[in-house]
From TrEMBL:
Signal peptide: none
Cofactor requirements of the protein: Zn(2+)
Keyword Zinc in record: yes
Pfam family, one: Peptidase_M1_N
PANTHER family per record: AMINOPEPTIDASE, PROTEASE M1 ZINC METALLOPROTEASE
Name by which UniProt lists this protein: Aminopeptidase N
Length: 867
């Protein structure tokens, strides 16, 4: 009895002790919005002092030390510190001089309230660094912490609105080079190790903290008084010399332009960059230490205009992030799109002076609209701004909507305000929130003062809802008076209208006359009265490429008005026609082309067009229609003449080596006939039997050609792979080819065995290799056998979302589903989702986006088969 009373008394005492300090329930996995808001309210003055000791031996763990200091407003409750690693990684933990148990609870170190104090706090951690986002290879590594991956490497408050300063020390093998956010304070050799101490960083979010280290070559240049350092691993010195000067000058030009536009000098201590083989993204905007995919900047000989422009735009995009994203950072990752849209939008403005011979309105059109439509037309379309209850789902915010639709929206917004008012608003935004965090409503509030339009209402449909309008064109002939009416239709049934302005051009079929109209479209139909002489005309809606939606389109207009169409009009017409082609319900409608007819139209177009951007657009459509929207029999019938047409364009029409390369790439991807496969084989084998004047192929081109040939000539696959492997000089390229080689095998058993290995997380570490492998496994010529991979690939998706980088789930799905066109595949997907009614909504949207082409293609194939 006494013992029981004692237990009760002790329990009461323990409960009583909690009146002054409150222990949290176990924190939620990830970083919840609730936790983030609480920490934002009580934390300030955060500093991370970090040391990482990278051993010579690849198999050994990276030892790390951390001293975290911060000011705390309220110490009455426990404070979770994010650390997503196994508990065994913790070696020591001291909070304000008091040792704490080595425990990780739901991906958090819970700092006990009784060890915390109001005001200044110091936490010391001895740990093994988590390597999930250190991207560690045998001879180099690089951090990639966006959006919430810093917590997989070291303990931190991993949310964008808790900016901090970092003091970094790296202990490395002596032959390694490195860059980080801040300049080097001291570099020395100690005990046959390279010890680099960096200056304290600028104030940055955890996702922007970064370093790159390894066996890199180091190049430094000073341009316009600024000094930049570039790390790279390229072994082809001629390629480096051919590209490096322009790479440095593009960075300098971007900085100069942004300083002038924003009225703010470059806000950070330095700007260096590293070119990394097989990097997951095109680039990542770490403060002072941008990371790029190497082949995005080191271009091959005879690059196309599109490649040159793409490189310049990528550099401009990442540099723009220094102001838009790094200087002013979104408060929460639901507004991650704001930094991306600003960077994309500014990049489009920025590259114009460097490329005076490129039609930049056309460039904007072809770079943004097809990709944005590719999501907005699907059942899984997402709004630009989304809800985000937990940062562990932030990676799914990314995609074509924020990278491509958002800049279209922003261009409409700038048009609404005027360029000067828009620029002054952006400057006020940067001044107001510099080195702080902001939301989209914060910007709308600033811009709203500069227009009579209700921007909050305008933003509601453009930013907070998904989808696109369908524009319906109607001609009313009333007693000789012709009236044209253009109205928006919301196919979702929500009666929305997207306020926008664009131009429409009318072509009089009788008088060979033209009329251009400025369309302002919103809730009410746009109406215009025409004379009786306009009773017979063709219309090109969105002739200036400013409008957004599904526009009715005349396929005959391209031919009948070819000489009178400018480049933007051709681009807009091509996009409109393709979008109409993809609507199964339009098949059989008067004037609507079938896929086989559209291929013939594209062949005609490609024989006449000279503009590289338009050629690229048309060839992309050709590849999609050829592999997805026609049957195998139709493909067999079309192949001989299509291949002759592409070869004719390649050999006889174009002398520009870069255009030859564009045609060659599509030719090699589409070839299926025996005679042309043998021609490609001879080119790859370099046997001298076939030569194409002016065509320069790089090592990477030959590797891609080997992959195509191994799949299309299975009886030679093994020999092709062996020979190509022997020919590869670049060691990083060789490792990649070795990885994907099983997917080129003629044996389904070998390919099946390889696919099984992808279920292991370690086999998915180099994501670009995995995506290349999936592309080979799901090649259109292997569709029947590849169906067996679809269900297990879907079953892996949630794990891939948790272990992979932000773009990997979407790209995994695109490579898995994007080349299929059968009802069977669509049924597998629909059944998968039907059996999982509580499936993660973000991932469900991505699945529905990726299966959209298969869904449309299967329906179109059914309809055209009946005609």
């Amino acid at each position: 009895m006494k013992r029981l009373l004692l237990v009760v008394w002790l329990g009461a005492c323990l409960l009583g002790c909690s009146s002054d300090t409150k222990e949290l329930e176990a924190p939620e996995i990830g970083v919840s919005l609730e936790l983030a808001e609480y920490r934002k309210s009580v934390l300030s003055g955060i500093n991370y002092k970090l040391e990482f000791r990278v051993p010579e031996e690849f198999g050994r763990q990276i030892q790390a030390l951390e001293e975290l200091t911060f000011n705390l407003e309220d110490n009455s409750r426990d404070l979770p510190l994010d650390f997503k690693v196994p508990q065994s990684h913790l070696k020591g933990l001291v909070v304000n001089g008091k040792s704490q148990p080595l425990e990780i609870v739901n991906e958090h170190i819970v700092l006990k309230a009784q060890n915390l104090q109001k005001g200044y706090n110091k936490v010391e951690v001895n740990f093994w660094a988590g390597e999930t986002s250190l991207n560690r290879k045998e001879d180099f590594l690089y951090t990639l912490f966006v959006p919430d991956r810093a917590r997989t490497a070291f303990p931190c408050f991993d949310q964008p609105n808790l900016k901090a300063r970092f003091n970094l020390t790296l202990d490395l093998p002596t032959n390694w080079s490195a860059i980080a956010n801040a300049p080097v304070s001291l570099a020395r050799i100690v005990n046959n190790r390279k010890n680099i101490i960096y200056e304290e960083s600028d104030l940055i979010s955890t996702y922007l903290f970064s370093f790159v280290a390894g066996e890199f070559k180091r190049v430094t240049q000073t341009v316009n008084g600024r000094t930049f350092t570039m790390l790279h691993r390229e072994t082809d010195e001629e390629k480096v010399e051919r590209n490096k000067d322009l790479i440095f000058s593009l960075h300098a030009a971007s900085l100069k332009w942004l300083e002038l536009y924003t009225g703010i000098e470059y806000p950070f201590k330095k700007l260096d960059f590293a070119l990394i083989p097989s990097f997951q993204y095109g680039g990542m905007e770490h403060v002072g230490a941008i990371q790029y995919r190497a082949n995005s900047l080191f271009l091959e000989k005879d690059p196309s205009q599109n490649q040159l422009l793409g490189r310049a735009s990528l550099i401009a995009h990442e540099v723009a992030h220094m102001w838009f994203g790094n200087l002013v950072t979104m408060d929460w990752f639901n507004d991650v799109w704001t930094k991306e849209v600003f960077a994309n939008f500014m990049a489009s403005k920025m590259v114009n002076p460097s490329f005076p011979n490129i039609n930049h309105d056309l460039s904007f059109l072809v770079r943004h609209y097809p990709s944005a439509y590719g999501v907005d037309r699907t059942q899984g379309a997402n709004p630009i701004r989304q809800n985000l209850p937990n940062l562990n789902e932030a990676g799914q915010m990314y995609g074509a909507i924020i990278y491509n639709k958002a800049p279209i929206m922003m261009r409409q917004l700038e048009s609404l305000l005027g360029e000067q008012a828009f620029q002054s608003g952006m400057q006020e935004y940067l001044r107001t929130y510099g080195m702080k965090n902001a939301t989209w409503p914060n910007l709308i509030e600033i811009l709203d003062k500069r227009t009579q339009v209700d921007l909050k209402r305008w933003s509601e449909v453009w930013v907070n809802t998904s989808g696109r309008p369908v524009f319906e064109l109607e001609t009313i002939n009333n007693e000789g008076q012709v009236e044209l009416q253009l109205s928006q239709k919301d196919v979702s049934g929500k009666n929305r209208a997207w306020p926008q302005s664009f131009r429409m051009k009318l072509f009089n079929a009788d008088k060979k006359d033209r009329k251009e109209l400025l369309v302002v479209s919103a809730d009410q139909p746009y109406k215009v009265k025409l004379g009786a002489e306009w009773a017979n005309f063709e219309a090109l809606a969105n002739s200036n490429g400013m409008g957004y939606g599904l526009f009715s389109s005349s396929y005959s207009l391209l031919v009948s008005q070819w000489e009178r169409l400018n480049e933007v009009e051709k681009g807009s017409l091509l996009i409109n026609m393709y979008e109409n082609l993809l609507e199964p319900g339009f098949i059989g409608r008067e004037g609507q082309y079938k896929p086989t007819e559209y291929i013939e139209l594209l062949k005609w177009f490609l024989m006449k067009e000279k503009n590289q951007l338009l050629i690229n657009l048309a060839l992309g459509q050709l590849r999609s229609v050829y592999w997805n929207l026609i049957s195998e029999d139709q493909r067999a019938n079309l192949a001989p003449d299509l291949e002759r047409t592409l070869l004719h364009c390649l050999n006889d029409i174009h002398e520009d080596p870069s255009i030859k390369k564009i045609f060659f790439n599509t030719y090699s991807q589409l070839v299926t006939t025996t005679v042309n496969l043998q021609r490609l084989y001879s080119i790859w084998a370099k046997d001298g039997m076939v030569q194409i004047s002016g065509l320069n192929l790089s090592e990477n081109d030959y590797i891609g050609l080997a992959e195509d040939l191994a799949i299309k000539i299975p009886e030679r696959a093994e020999a092709i792979v062996v020979q190509q492997l022997e020919r590869i000089k670049n060691p990083d390229s060789r490792k990649r080819f070795e990885f994907i080689a099983p997917t080129l095998s003629a044996s389904a058993t070998v390919r099946d065995a390889f696919f099984e290995t992808l279920k292991e997380e370690k086999m998915r570490e180099t994501e670009s290799w995995v995506l290349a492998a999936l592309s080979n496994l799901h090649h259109p010529l292997r569709r029947d056998q590849a169906r067996s991979y679809i269900l297990p690939s879907l079953e892996l998706l949630q794990e891939i979302q948790q272990t992979g980088d932000i773009f990997f789930p979407t790209r995994w799905l695109d490579q898995t589903l994007g080349s299929h066109n059968s009802h069977e595949v669509v049924k597998v997907v629909d059944d998968f989702l039907a059996k999982r009614p509580r499936y993660n909504e973000q991932l469900k949207m991505k699945i529905l986006q990726s299966v959209d082409m298969a869904r449309r293609a299967s329906q179109i194939l059914d309809k055209t088969a009946k005609k």
